[in-house]
Specification:
With about 350 residues, this protein is of the alpha/beta class. The protein is about 45% helix and about 15% strand. The chain binds nicotinamide-adenine-dinucleotide.
């Protein structure tokens, strides 16, 4: 396993490995950049097949967090943690405590939040050992409702306002009658569907499970399509809200939509796919810019704030996207590259 030569290493500031003999914890914390503040990012627990796979994931994800935080206007850097192992098989209270001690050993340079394979309950156990755990005592909700710590309402609202301004920029119209195809109706996708429905959009939806489709069909007048047909829908906007790497040469060639704006992380199979979208005259809302509502939510839970301040911050996703689009247009560049440029200007300042 090479570390400094690793293709994803990219000037990481700090990489820490932990093996706790008593609990069997094997974990890695990667801190990419703290120029703007302590690094913030989720802790993922996953049955990685090799240490290499875990290292690759943690490096890639922590770098992504630096860019996301910078574009969201947070005084926060990027970091990430991974625990190697199947959460359904080896997760114990003692293992979570050991992970809490590992986070604490970095003295606050890394603040841990939730990610795949981890729950708020797990983070609360980690918080017995460290003050550097986020997302466990939520106070604010983007619409002033009871805050339960789930950042999805903020993420969905951020995607909604970002999608709306992307449509205004590309199609010069509001959302009334705009056709939106949503892939994935989970925590974010279903809430996005509701916002869009209320704004007068026409919805086409898909998921691999029927329950949420039934809600979207009955409550938001959505039309159901099969999962593999979502790319072919004759719609104005494609909103990927399920998994990553769905924008590849094959799917991009099929799209009839003029805007891609959705919540999924790592939507582009490769950076070059941003250029393919541009060549097809499809406006792409860079995923880590439009889906930053969740991290903005977690950030506000840690500082003295209010529902209104959090909501206003989420709404600034629109302004940031327009900045990206205008510069991309002026420089004739793909929007994903311009987002990277602006983020780098912010955190390298
Ligand atoms: P989720 O697991 O609640 O929902 C994902 C949905 O996609 C599920 O309903 C699932 O059945 C569906 N799905 C899976 N494979 C599919 C396929 N092939 N075709 C159609 N649907 C499929 O997840 P979520 O929290 O709603 O997050 C959605 C995406 O947004 C993820 O990529 C996530 O990483 C990203 N994201 C989420 C947040 C957040 O606050 N939850 C924040 C930032 C980014």
């Amino acid at each position: 396993m090479s570390v400094f030569q690793h293709i994803e290493f990219d000037n990481h500031e700090h990489l820490a490995f932990c093996h706790d003999k008593e609990t069997g914890l094997k974990a890695i914390i990667a801190i990419h950049n703290t120029n703007l503040g302590a690094s913030l990012g989720g802790c993922r627990m996953w049955p990685y097949v090799s240490d290499d796979e875990a290292l690759n994931d943690v490096l890639r994800l922590s770098k992504g967090m630096t860019y996301k935080a910078a574009m969201a206007g947070l005084n926060q850097g990027g970091g990430k943690a991974v625990i190697i192992g199947d959460p359904r098989k080896i997760k114990t209270i003692e293992l979570m405590r050991a992970m809490g001690r590992f986070v604490d050993s970095l003295g606050g340079k890394y603040i841990s939040a939730e990610d795949s394979g981890m729950s708020v309950a797990d983070l609360k156990i980690m918080a017995e050992q460290s003050n550097h755990i986020a997302g466990i005592d939520a106070k604010y909700h983007v619409f002033g409702e009871h805050a339960d710590g789930n950042p999805a309402p903020s993420t969905a609202y951020g995607v909604f306002v970002g999608l709306r301004s992307s449509v205004e920029f590309a199609l010069k119209r509001d959302l009334k009658g705009v056709k939106v195809a949503i892939q994935g109706l989970g925590h974010v996708g279903l809430r996005l569907a509701e916002h869009l429905y209320k704004a007068g959009a026409e919805l086409y939806v898909t998921d691999i499970y029927p329950e949420n489709i039934a809600i979207a069909v009955s409550q938001f007048n959505a039309k159901q399509v099969k999962p593999d047909e979502i790319y072919d829908v004759d719609a104005d906007v494609f909103a990927p809200c399920a998994m990553g790497a769905i924008l590849n040469p094959d799917s991009i060639a099929r799209l009839k939509m003029k805007v891609v704006a959705g919540a999924a992380n790592n939507q582009l199979a490769t950076e070059k796919c941003g250029q393919l979208l541009k060549e097809r005259n499809i406006l792409y809302a860079p995923d880590y810019v439009i889906n930053a509502g969740g991290i903005i939510d977690i950030y506000h839970q840690k500082i003295p704030s209010s529902h209104e301040a959090m909501r206003a911050h989420v709404e600034r996703i629109s302004t940031t996207l327009i900045e990206v689009y205008e510069r991309a247009q002026a420089l004739n560049l793909a929007t994903n590259l311009v987002a990277n440029q602006i983020a780098e200007e912010r955190f390298n300042k």
